[in-house]
Amino acid sequence: MSKIISEISKTGWRFNNSYARLPEMMFSRLNPVPSKAPKLIILNETLSEELGLNFCDVKDDHLALMFAGNLLPQGSECIAQAYAGHQFGHFTILGDGRAIMIGEHVAKNNKKFDIQFKGSGQTPYSRDADGRAALGPMLREYIVSEAIHSLGIPTTRSLAVVTTGESIIRETFLPGAILTRVASSHIRVGTFQYAAIKGDINSLKTLVNYAIDRHYPNLKNLNNPTLGLLNTVMEKQIELVTHWMRVGFIHGVMNTDNMAISGETIDYGPCAFMDTYNPETVFSSIDHNGRYAYFNQPGITKWNLTRFAESLILLIDENKDRAIDILKENINKFGEIYKKHWLNMMRKKLGLIGEKTEDENLINELLSWMNSNNADYTNTFCSLAKKNILSFKMFQNNKFTDWYQRWKNRLKMNNKTMEFSLSLMHENNPYVIPRNHKVEEALDAASNHNNLEPFKKLLKNLKKPYDNHSEMKDYQSPPLPCNKIYKTYCGT
Ligand code: AMP
Ligand code: MG
Q1: Structural contact between residues 268 and 486, judged by C-beta atoms closer than 8 angstroms
Q2: Closest Cα to residue 72, out of 139, 133, 130, 117?
Q3: What number does the ligand 1 atom closest to the CA of 258 have?
Q4: Residue-wise pLDDT tens digits, 223-253
Q5: What single string gives the DSSP state of each residue in 36-49?
Q6: Which residues form the catalytic set?
C-alpha cells in the first residue's frame, strides 16, 4: 500500500489546505468512505496536464484507488464543507453531504484548485441520505462541464470518474460512482449564508477576507472591500448568466448553494441545453413552477445575489438600516448591468458592431420569430451566417424575410467588412452543443450497457464547438420528435 501511495504522490500533487485553516465551524474533518472495488472509468488527460499532474506511469487500478479516496496522496487534508442555501426559495442548512475536499492543489503559476470527490460517502451533513452518487449523473456532470469549458464559459472541471464497485439504491439499483471535481474554489453564496446565520461576526469577517485573498486580492485596497466583493461577484455572475443565455444553457437548480463566488458554473444536476427556442423551457423534473426556466435565470441570479448581500449586512455598517440601504443601492444596479451585457452578447451573435437604438427590437423580434416557428436556437444563429439561408424552407416566410432585410440593413451600418461580422458570429455561435438526447444516449450506453464509446465520441465532438466539421452533423441535429427529452433528473 505504502508503495502505491508513494507512486501516486509522485504524480505532481502539491497540496495547500488553506480552507482547513478557517474557523472550525466552517467544515468537518473526515476521510472519504473507502469504496469496495473502485474501477477507473475516465481520466481527463488534458486537464491533468493543465494542472501539472502526470498520471502516465500509474496503473489504472492504482488511479482508481486514488480517485475513490481509498488511498490519498501525501499532503492532502480531507474536509467536508459546511454551508447553507436557499433551495427553491427555502432556507436550509446543508453542507457537503456526499463530497470530500482533499485539499487545494497548487498548479502552475501558483493557481490553487480545490480537488473534491463527489459521491464519496456519508458526512455529518448527509441528512439521512447515503452520501453516494450514481454513474449516470457523474458522467453527465463530466460531459456537460467539459462542454461548458470548451464553449469558453467559466466552470468547475471534471478530472476523473471511477465506479465504486457498489450498487446504490435509487428507484432501482444503480452503479455507484465518484467524480473528481476541480474548482477554483467551492466558496458559495451559501457559505456566507452559513457563516451569517451562525451570528459569529469574526468568522464571517475571516471568510470574507479569505474569499477576497483567494479570488479578488485587488479588492483589499478599497475603502470597503466587502462591498467590493459583492459588486465583483455580481459582475462575475452577470458575465456567467449572459454566457448561459448565449448558448441556451439551463442550469436547472440555481439554489444559492449552487452559486460559486468565483463565477464558475457549479453543480451540474438536471441541467440541459435548449434545442427549440422557447424562453419558458424547463428540463428539471423537480422544477414544477419553472423557477429556474431559461428566461428566469438572470432574475434568479439577482435574487441569489440579494441573499448574498443579506449575509454581508453585519460587515457593511453598524447601523443595520444604513447597511441595508447601501446593499440595496448596489444590488439595484443589476438590471442595468445585465441588460448591457445581454444586448452586447446578442449583438455579437448577430455580427452587429456599435450600438444602435433599434438593436434591442431587432434582437427581440428574431427571438419571437424563433419562438413562434419552433426554430432551433443554436442552428438558427448558425444559419444566419450562411449565404443561402433563404433557400431553406423554414426561412421562407414574410415575417422572417422582412426581419432578414432589416438585419442586413443594420449590418451595413457596422462600418466594418462583412468578414469581420461573420468572424464575430462564428466566435459567439457554437455549431455543436451537448444536446440532451445525445447526452442521454451516451449515458444509457455507459450505465446500462457497459459501453463508453458513445460517451467518448460525444466528448470528442464537443471539444471544438465553434468549428464546423462534416463528422459533427449527427451532433448538430435537433432531436426527432420521438427522441425529444422533456425531463432531466437530479439523480441524487
Ligand atoms: P445538490 O442538489 O447536489 O446541490 O445537493 C443539495 C444538498 O444535498 C447538498 O448538501 C448535498 O451534499 C446533499 N446531497 C445530495 N445528494 C446527496 C446524497 N446522495 N447523500 C447525501 N447528501 C446529498
Ligand atoms: Mg449543491
Answers
A1: no
A2: 117
A3: 4
A4: 999 999 999 999 999 999 999 999 999 999 9
A5: SS-EEEEE-HHHHH
A6: 257
